[in-house]
Amino acid sequence: MTFSAHRQEIPGAEEPEPWPRGVSRKPLLSIGQVVSRLEQEFPAISLSKVRFLEERGIVTPFRTASMYRKFSEADIERLRFCLTAQRESFLPLDQIKDRLDRMDAGEEVAVEPVARVVASAGVPVQPVDGSVITLRELEDYTSATDEELETLIDCGLIQPDQRGRYPASAVRVVRQALALRAGGVPLRSMKMIGTFAHRMSHAALSSSVVQKGSSSVIAERRRAQSQDIARVASELVQEIMRADIDRDL
Questions:
Q1: Looking at the record, which segments are called Disordered (predicted)?
Q2: Residues with Cβ within 8 Å of residue 35, at least 6 apart in sequence
């Protein structure tokens, strides 16, 4: 089998060996085999996710003469490092890539990713509520691929503003949608969830009426009332689903 030579299998003596060192760099694994190796640890892994991480520079697989990707054990370790940092620490991809670049250059960087948390609450850091983020930042916070985000946009679960930016809450929506997908729920089928949620939020706003107070006070009271209605609606959906599951099993 012939491999293209755009990446050296054994770096020259003048350059440090890329991380991880001492791990085989023989390009023997197909992209499907890589997914099979990692899916038990990372159920949300997919072919498109591996391609996306390749595009972002996390791995650079060999290409055969027919342009098929071939991965090594070292590539799997780099993917494992990246996926662990995203899952455990919610690190954006640009920070993970920077850490890998420093490790490739021979710097002593902690292999175990350090969780970015709010010390007082232990909650993973994400954009401040009320702020807006770009599509690339949304990708970095959630590790969602372009295809996954496009599907969620088409399904109405997340929507950009007129300038193409997204509310900070979109990070939680995308993470929860990907968690559902990992549990076996296709992203496309989540359109009904988005439709139901939008209708219920409209009903909640229509039901919350506050007549007295300044405009800011009225808005805050309506928000609080609407959130109470949303909480009850969520609990109602859970109870209906539990009843359906108990009946059908």
A1: 1-22
A2: 45, 46, 47, 50
